[in-house]
Amino acid sequence: MDELAKRLRSARAILVLTGAGMSAESGLPTFRGDDGYWRNHRVEDLASPQGFARDPLTVWRWYNERIQRCRGAEPNAGHYALAQLEAMITNMTLATQNVDSLHARAGSKNVLELHGHLREAGCTGCNATLPLANGLDENLIDHSCGGRFRPQVVWFGEALPRDVWARAEHAAAQADVILLVGTSAQVYPAAALALQNDRAFIAEINPGATGLSERCDCVIREGAAVALHAMMKALRQKE
Fold first, then answer.
1. CA distance 28 to 101
2. Which of 15, 91, 139, 199 has the most CB atoms around it within 10 Å of its CB?
3. What is the distance between the alpha carbons of residues 21 and 200, in angstroms, rounded to a whole number?
4. Rounded-to-10 torsion of CA 61, 67, 68, 73
5. Rounded to a whole number, what is the distance in angstroms from the first to the last CA of the chain?
């Protein structure tokens, strides 16, 4: 932790990449844990264009449940710690694989939502959108233009938003420190951000080993809330 704090103090640019583990301590299940969202469903049925085309009602019932969970969740100490870090660092980019908007609610401003968000639904046939504060009324799935409203998230088999990904790649290339928090490093291309800069100091905060652990210069085996709070405490101490 002291070494990570030292690196952060001297960094001119930082990239933070967060995954589902970041929000686990806010009560939102991870996707690949024992209590993950995928446990009772096939991925292809719930998070792909093909699954949505086959059964949009089932997909929306599942997403409406997720939206309610996200709305009921609160940012944890880790979310707030990253917002505080951003206030201390001139050039910090936070790229997240999460769609729960908890980083923004905690006060982070330079957030790249790699996999989209659950704040709106977008029509597959036109540019119409609908707010999703309480989910989507099942009667509104079919739009008058002939399209269907779907969550504004990136599904399996779909490309990440081009502009968001370009900004994330640029941030990774410029970073002196790349901090990986609560990500399994199994979902690409997001996980590849940590591999695009040979000179960056790479730190991982995650309770268990990931596919990137061996590539990291620093590994902290703690949950996000505990570790990031401790990180900020160490960062504020004088060298």
1. 12
2. 15
3. 23
4. 150
5. 13
- Domains along the chain with CATH numbers: 1-28+75-115+162-239 (3.40.50.1220), 34-72+118-153 (3.30.1600.10)
Mean pLDDT of the chain: 91
What SS3 state is found at 164? helix
- Burial of 216 per CB tally in 10 Å (0-12, 13-18, 19+): buried
Q: Please state, in angstroms and as integers, the Cα–Cα distance from residue 150 to each residue in 11, 126, 215, 227, following that order.
A: 40, 12, 37, 36
Q: How far apart are CA 105 and CA 122, in angstroms?
A: 22
Q: Which helix (H) or strand (E) holds 231?
A: helix 224-236
Residue 40 pLDDT grade (very low, low, confident, very high; cuts 50, 70, 90): low
Global pTM reads: 0.91
Residue 48 burial by Cβ neighbours in a 10 Å radius (0-12, 13-18, 19+): middle
Structure confidence by residue, pLDDT tens digits, 65-108: 889 999 999 999 999 999 999 999 989 999 999 999 999 999 99
Active site residues: 115
Q: Is the pLDDT of residue 32 over 80?
A: no
Residue type, 3: E
